[in-house]
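Q: How would the structure tokens look for this protein?
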Amino acid sequence: MKKHRIFTTSFASVYPHYITKAEKKSRTKAEVDTIICWLTGYSDKALQQQIEARVDFETFFEQAPELNPNVCKIKGVICGYRVEEIEDELMRKIRYLDKLVDELARGKAMEKILRE
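A: Here is the predicted structure in token form.
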């Protein structure tokens, strides 16, 4: 079965779009990085290394230290799909990230985004 195109897309090519989306709504790159690190377990330094290495999304999530145990609290619709119902594990992780960045851009408080 052919892989979805996003799986082989470099994370570094999408990352600036996350930043732009947040900054258009007066949020910051630091907040985006916080969300990504919270979700994946990467440190700030390790995140930057992944970006510089231009790894694809599949590798990015495969090499992630540990998915946050609170990801089960991420619910809702992104790109027309309920994130909690997406069967493909990698696609669900990517959509979790999309959902968190979307919540940031919509002005949601960081405590709520990080499910604290």
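The two ends are 38 Å apart (CA to CA).

The beta strands are 77-78, 81-82.

Upvote if useful.
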